[in-house]
């Protein structure tokens, strides 16, 4: 979703609203964010930060990577995932979002993408999304195809699906064999305390079921508008 004007100009508008309308700054910022299509200023700023971060992160991703995008709610992990999908599409790669969290309409609203758009991000919203489903979908995919999974902890939520460890193992093997890149949006456990450490890390990934985190090759942790990228193995 493209802003109508650079973010610094939006901030100036907010300050003018504060002076002219005698309202708190946070209220003015949220109002401007709504005008730009975001529910709150925090989401707008996360979107802007993700756009800048995605260029650097995308340049570091290689074929066959298994990437974690992790953060607490509202820290921009989904926005970053969308920016990476857009970067992949603009680079001429097949770009797919597998989401168990959002409807296609919600995704299109957040990305500003219309059906039939050039370099379109493919949106898959089936309740049957799991490792086998994605591998079947991606079976003709070329190396460098970029797939985002929204989100990691939902993959085995339904009892008829294989456990999370089995699914991620299968996807890691598929990525290594084909060169497809998987990026997993991931939750962070509530126990993460930013007063103790600046960023969450692998120990803070919320894992209701057992999973070998060594299956991932890279992990990007987001907090408070900043990001930290790690090579896992």
UniProtKB/TrEMBL annotation:
Q: Which UniProt keywords apply?
A: ATP-binding, Helicase, Hydrolase, Nucleotide-binding
What's a Gene Ontology MF term here? ATP binding
NCBIfam families from the xrefs?
PRK05973.1
Annotated protein name in UniProt? Replicative DNA helicase
Q: Which Pfam families match?
A: DnaB_C
Name any GO cellular component annotation.
Answer: cytosol
Q: Provide the GO biological process annotations.
A: DNA replication
Q: Which organism is it from?
A: Agrobacterium genomosp. 2 str. CFBP 5494
Give a yes or no for keyword Nucleotide-binding in this entry.
yes
Domain SF4 helicase: start-end pairs: 62-111
Q: Does the keyword Hydrolase apply?
A: yes
